[in-house]
Amino acid sequence: MQYPPTRSADHTDDYFGTRVPDPYRWLEALDAPETAAWVAAQNEVTFDYLAQLPYRAQLNARLTQLWNYERFGVPERVGEELVFSRNDGLQNQAVLYRQRGDEAPRVLLDPNAFSAEGTTALAGTAFSNDHRYMAYATSSGGSDWHQVRILDLTTNELLPDLLDWVKVSGTSWVKNGFYYSRYDAPKAGENGLSGRNEYHKVYYHHLNTPQADDRLVYENPAMALGFRWADVTEDERFLVLSLTDGVADGNQLLVRDLTDPTQAEAWTTLVDGYECSNSVVGNVGGEVLVYTNYQAPNYRVVGIDPRRPAEAHWREVLPESAHKLESVTQAGGRLIADYLHDARSLVRVYAETGEFQHEVALPALGTAAGFGGRRDATAVYYAFTSFTYPTTIYRYDLARNVSTVFRAPSVDVHPADYETTQVFYPSKDGTRIPMFIVHRRGLELNGRQPTYLYAYGGFNVSVTPAFSVARLLWLENGGVLAVANLRGGGEYGEAWHQAGMTPHKQNVFDDFIAAADYLKAHNYTDAAHLAIAGGSNGGLLVGAVMTQRPDLCRVALPAVGVLDMLRYHTFTIGWNWAPEYGTSDDEAQFRNLLAYSPLHNLRPAAYPATLITTADHDDRVVPAHSFKFTAAMQAANTGPHPTLIRIDVNAGHGAGKSTKLQIDEWADVWSFCYANMGVVPAVR
């Protein structure tokens, strides 16, 4: 490969007496003409290479065919109507519909009209309690910055209200307005896509007023970092404030009784400190129901009376169990609890007082999500999915404990043609790690099957079975899909999460390497036919593993990865990941980070064929991570396999990416895998 030349600058940082070169620091200047020229030159090389790959056009055509099926989101009841999203197949963005009874659905909002390229997405909706208004957020080009607008549901007309610089925010209605969170606008000359985000604030916006008149509800001028998030209980009684500090992994929980005039500006602390994760499920009269991992690594629900918030007065509603309590919703006078049993859903229904009522029968081994509704609901809706079970929407009758299909997709897939097994393998230290393996039924295990190994391993995120048409193409062409549930995730509660956090992050990489070794030892594949993949924190995973074990696989696919572990916290909201990783500002944490930081552990070696993917509007994991890693790896790679970077334009970290961009990217990923594994796919 003839790569574009990358200037190497003489830049070195001193960390506690250790001098660390950073020759590609200039690539952090995302708006600089030199960076733009480098991006254009790299993309030209990458897309010229991809254009020459065999089967790329056929794979794109087959993906387009597979993708072209009707998909629905989980409905929400708004007054007498259901509101739900629907994509007719190849629309770049799903359309929001409203439906009354058996009448034909009507378009409520079409995000495809937001931009000509389909790159502006709907990022969230919230309905006023009188069902008159809908606040909705939009994201342009995949950015985490949102704009909020208001739609009058009776006239279907937009109000003049426009809110800017909204990020990490909900929209919580009370009377004729709502609470939301935002930052101050960037100062002149600051890059809004890479600059550090500080001093998050909560405001109340009253309808038909300019944003400049919004009332400041909460700020902490002494604390630059951390998020401030407001929510309101369904009955509009309690305003709940969640506070993080950007250092610890949990959050404080404060509450204000909006019906009590004496509490007009007062806050009552329900849960103090930042060591545990807490959120409000709802309330029963004067008692607030809190989902927490305080003294419960697998999570529980407690009732807290704000008039007596001391721990001694807490009431245990749903005790901690052997299974991780993944989420809880309050609907129809019940609590619907979604537990994880070995990374798959187990759903149970309880009375609001905590008495068990029944278990929800799910159609297969997989993932259920949804179950939201108001306290007067008689039915709720949920989505069910698995690796070969296309996402299907169910209506669940709360009184009868019966699920019926609300919308089922028609996809060119026959689940009976595939099999999913769950295995458990030992990691380097003997810890038992679960992994799902999916492939065609009756596939010959000859030790050479093309295998795609995916994982995440961080931030308490649980990776559970889910359907993907992109992965279906891999499966129907004889590929093996393996999904490992590494430490650092949330599959087994907070103890599992902490086992993969700083200073134990190496456990995550060891778990992933052991997954690859298991697949080889059990005759699924070999190094020449293995691809490893992950995005964001999973991109860090791939980057760390490929630098520690360049011989492990033939293809590496780090997507939107956190790859410069010494400087990640200096960009946008990267400081928020400090509890997970630690930062280079602390000497012990610096030495831990330096030991595995992908950028800093590249050395002359024969690396796997690597396709690094990122996007120019990624303001969560800024593309400078991928730029610097690409430049360093192209200089270090002594082997015959390519090191390429694929940079999407008008796209971000992943959310809201248009259908066309998704299809194009997956066609390139699979083409790259097949070509570098020497595999001929049986493309239909």
Provide a descriptive summary of the structure in words.
The model has no long low-confidence stretch (mean pLDDT 95). A hairpin with a 5-residue loop joins strand 16 (228-232) and strand 17. This protein has 684 residues and is of the alpha+beta class. Among the domains are: 42-64 and 413-677, Alpha/Beta hydrolase fold, catalytic domain (Rossmann fold); 71-110, no CATH class; 325-410.
Name its key features.
alpha+beta, globular, 5-stranded antiparallel beta sheet, Rossmann fold, single chain, 39 strands, about 35% strand, 8-stranded mixed beta sheet, about 675 residues
Short structural summary:
This protein has 684 residues and is of the alpha+beta class. The chain has 10 helices and 39 strands. Helix 9 (624-636) links the parallel strand 38 and strand 39 (643-648).
Lay out the secondary structure.
Layout lengths: L11 E4 L2 E4 L11 H19 L4 H12 L3 E2 L3 E3 L2 E7 L7 E6 L5 E4 L10 E8 L5 E8 L5 E7 L4 E10 L5 E3 L2 E6 L18 E6 L8 E4 L9 E5 L5 E6 L8 E6 L10 E4 L6 E7 L2 E6 L7 E5 L10 E4 L5 E8 L2 E8 L2 E8 L4 E4 L7 E6 L6 E8 L2 E9 L4 E6 L10 E9 L5 E9 L10 E4 L14 H8 L3 E5 L9 H5 L7 H16 L8 E6 L1 H12 L6 E5 L18 H4 L5 H10 L12 E7 L8 H13 L6 E6 L10 H19 L7
Parallel strand pairs: 34-35, 34-36, 36-37, 37-38, 38-39
Antiparallel strand pairs: 1-2, 3-5, 4-5, 5-6, 6-7, 8-9, 9-10, 10-11, 12-13, 13-14, 14-15, 16-17, 17-18, 18-19, 20-21, 21-22, 22-23, 24-25, 25-26, 26-27, 28-29, 29-30, 30-31, 32-33, 33-35
Helix pairs in contact: 2-3, 2-10, 5-6
What is the strand arrangement across the widest sheet? 32-33-35-34-36-37-38-39
Q: What oligomeric state do these chains adopt?
A: single chain
Named at the architecture level, the CATH assignment of the domain at 42-64 and 413-677 is 3-Layer(aba) Sandwich
Briefly note the CATH topology name of the domain at 42-64 and 413-677.
Rossmann fold
The proportion of strand residues reads 25-35%
Could you describe the largest sheet, including whether it forms a barrel?
8 strands, mixed
What coarse outline follows from CA principal-axis ratios?
A: globular
Structural class: alpha+beta
Computed CA radius of gyration, to the nearest angstrom = 25 Å
State the end-to-end CA separation: 31 Å
Average of pLDDT: 95
Count of DSSP strands: 39
Helix content: 10-25%
- Number of helical segments with 4 or more residues: 10
List the uncertain runs.
none
